[in-house]
Amino acid sequence: MDLYEYQGKQYFARFGIPISAGGVADTVDEAVAQADAAGYPVVVKAQVKVGGRGKAGGVKLAKDADEVRLHAGNILGLDIKGHVVHRLWVEHASDIAKEYYASFTLDRPNKLHLGMLSAEGGVEIEEVAETNPDAIAMVHVDPVKGFAEGTAREWVARANLDEEAREQAAALLVKLYTCYVEGDCDLAEINPLILTPDGRVHALDAKVTLDDNATFRHPEWEEYAATETEDPRERMAKEKGLNYIGLSGTVGIIANGAGLAMSTLDVVTQVGGTAANFLDIGGGANADVMAAALEVINADPAVKSIFVNIFGGITRVDEVAKGVIEALARVDITSPIVLRLDGTNAEQGRALLAPHLSDTLQAEPTMLDAARRAVALAG
Ligand code: GDP
Ligand code: MN
Questions:
Q1: Which are the catalytic amino acids?
Q2: pLDDT tens-digit profile of 103-123?
Q3: Residue pair 209/1 in contact by the 8 Å Cβ criterion
Q4: Closest by CA position to 231, among listed 243, 212, 218, 247
Q5: CA atoms of 306 and 334, how far apart (whole Å)
Q6: Candidates 2, 43, 49, 59: which one to mutate for ligand 1, based on the most atoms within 8 Å of Cβ?
Q7: Greater confidence, 119 or 285?
Q8: Cα separation, 335 vs 311, whole angstroms
Q9: For residue 123, what pLDDT is reported?
Q10: Which of 86, 137, 315, 349 is the most exposed place for a label (fewest CB within 10 A)?
Q11: 217 pLDDT exceeds 90?
C-alpha cells in the first residue's frame, strides 16, 4: 500500500526523522488555518499518490493567507496524471541550500536491503540513474546484521554530501532504516532530503510503500486503508475472498493456481489479446468460488470474453465442471466464456459440460486454442 506524502511524513516523524511543521486541509479555509498554524511562508502541496507534483503545478509557495487561498483554490480539484486532488498538505516553507535523495528498498535478487543516496536530489532518481549513475551511492544491508551508524557515516561521505550535512544525514539515515525495517516498508524514500542554509538536514517529501504482508502487525495501518482509493473491482473481489488483480484489457481470466493464472495472461498476450485481470481461484474451484469469480469479472464493463483455464491436479475437473454449471445457473453472464479443462478427470468433466456448450459457453482442447478463441471473441 502506498501512502500519501502527509501520511509518509507522519510515519517518518514516529521514527524521529525531522519534517516541517504542517497539517492537512480539504478546503481553502482549512488550508489557510493550517498555514496560520504552521507560520508563513508556507508550501501548499497536492496530496496524490503520484510523483512529479512540483512540475505539474501541485506544489506552490505562499507568503501570506491570500496566496494560500489562491494556490489552494487552484490545486484542489487539479488533475495530476489522472489523479484528482482532494486533499492538501500545508507546511512551513524551508529555505533550501541543497537537495539530496535518500531511500531504502528491497533488493530481491540479492536478498538484501538496498540504500540509495545522492547529492543530486530534487529531480527524479530515474533521471539521475540515466544521466549520472555515479552520483548515486548504493549500500547493501544484510537484514540480519542491520545498519550501523559507521556504515551510514562512510555512506554519506561516499555520496559526497556536503561536509556540514554529513553528521545529521548519517543519523537521519539510521532512523530511515529503522523506519523501513520496523515500520515494515517496501520503500521509504526522501526526495528531496534538504540541507538548509542554517545547516539543518530534514525531509521535504516522503514516499512510503508499506508491505501489505505485514498488515497483521500494524493495527494502526487501518487509517491508511480508509483513505485508499481502491479499484472497485478489487474491492468486490476482496469481499469475496478472491485473489484478484484488476488490469486494463478485455479478456477476463479465471485460472486455478497463481502460476497457471500468470501463464494464462502470457498466452492471452502472446496471441494478441489483453487481460482484464489476474484471478487465481486456487485449489477449491467449487460452484461458490466459480460463481464469485464470474460475478467479479462480469461486473467489469471492459470485459468482452472470459477465459476459464483449469488444470486439475488435486482439484478434479469433473468437480470444476459441476461448479461451472452451477455457477452459470446462478450468475447472469454477459460475455461469452471459453473453457479449457485438463488434468485429473478431464474426460468426465468435459462430458458433464458437453450438453451445456453453446455460443456463449465454448470449450477448446488446449490452452493456446482457448486463448485464441477468447481473444477472437473479445474482438
Ligand atoms: P514532487 O514533485 O511530487 O516530488 O514534490 P516535492 O515534495 O518533492 O516538491 C517538489 C519540489 O518543490 C522540491 O524538489 C522543492 O524544490 C520544492 N519545494 C518543496 N517544498 C519546498 C519548501 O518548503 N521550500 C522551497 N523553497 N521549495 C520547496
Ligand atoms: Mn519529491
A1: 101, 189
A2: 999 999 999 999 999 999 988
A3: yes
A4: 247
A5: 10
A6: 59
A7: 119
A8: 22
A9: 86
A10: 86
A11: yes
- Which residues are near ligand 2, the ion (C-beta closer than 5 Å)? 191, 205
CA of 43 to the centre of ligand 2 (A): 13
Q: Give me the torsion for CA of 178, 179, 181, 185, rounded to 10°.
A: -160
CA 302 to CA 324: how far, in whole Å?
22
What is the rounded average pLDDT for all residues in the chain? 95
Q: Pick the residue whose CA is nearest to atom 14 on ligand 1.
A: 122
The confidence score (pLDDT) of residue 284 equals 66
Tell me, using a 6 A CB cutoff, whether residue 205 lines ligand 1: yes
Q: All 3 cell numbers of residue 371? A: 486463448
Cβ–ligand 1 contact at 51 (below 6 Å): yes
- CA-CA distances (angstroms) from residue 339 to 85, 317, 330? 43, 12, 18
